[in-house]
Amino acid sequence: MAAEPLQRLLQEAFPDATELRVEDRTGGGDHFQVIIATPRFDGLPLLEQHRLVNDALAAPLRDGTIHELRIKTKGTE
Amino acid sequence: MSDLRQRIQDVIDNEPVALFMKGTPQFVMCGNSDRALRALRGAGAPVTAVDILPDPAIRQELSAISGWPTIPQVFVKGELIGGADIVEELAADGELEAKLEGTLGPSYREARAEQVASVL
């Protein structure tokens, strides 16, 4: 899987994101780095921020198209 | 509750720091598991590692308990801390050590050596 479908899933889940990037870390289409900044993360514990990202990517995580995921979340404050 | 799920729950509840990982500390099978282990070691955490690879059911039951989809998963005294990225981030700004000290007490580093547990 390329990065674009993941990017779309995240855009749908976080329409107010001020920064949103999905990088294919190895070029193999299964190791991804997600970087996302949204006001929704403001004041939210890191665990809950990551949980929202995991929820948005639940389908590709479940079916194994994402083999490895790295997440970097940021608030906007 | 299945026996397997109960044994996983026991590790989560009873171990000071539980790390569910791919492989063992001696033979790590995944980059993210390695990052989490290194961050925990750096903070002096008394890690109990559980290899999830021997049986796919371990991962299924673990995620059903924690509501967390990915491996590794780190728990401190029964509380889910997160995966590799979270543990690394918390370690980098000193929050991991503060959490361990607050939950396990100031002498948590001397508590005991790293160990491995099986849930099968």
Write up what this structure looks like.
The complex is a heterodimer of chains A (77) and B (120). With 77 residues, chain A is an alpha+beta fold. Chain A has one domain (3-74): BolA-like (GMP Synthetase, Chain A, domain 3, 2-Layer Sandwich). Chain A contains 3 helices and 3 strands. Chain A has helices spanning 3-13, 46-56, 58-62; strands at 19-24, 31-37, 68-74. In chain A, strands 1-2-3 form a 3-stranded mixed beta sheet. The radius of gyration of chain A is 12 Å and the shape is globular. The model of chain A has no long low-confidence stretch (mean pLDDT 94). Chain B is α/β, with parallel strands linked by helices. Chain B has one domain: Glutaredoxin. In chain B, 45% of the residues lie in helices and 21% in strands. Chain B contains 5 helices and 7 strands; from the N terminus they run αβββαβαββααβ. Chain B has helices at residues 3-14, 31-42, 56-66, 84-92, 95-104; strands at residues 17-21, 23-24, 27-28, 47-51, 73-76, 79-82, 115-117. The longest helix of chain B is centred in the first third of the chain and has 12 residues, at 3-14. The two termini of chain B are 15 Å apart. The mean pLDDT of chain B is 96. At the A-B interface, helix 2, helix 3 and strand 3 of A face strand 6 and helix 4 of B.
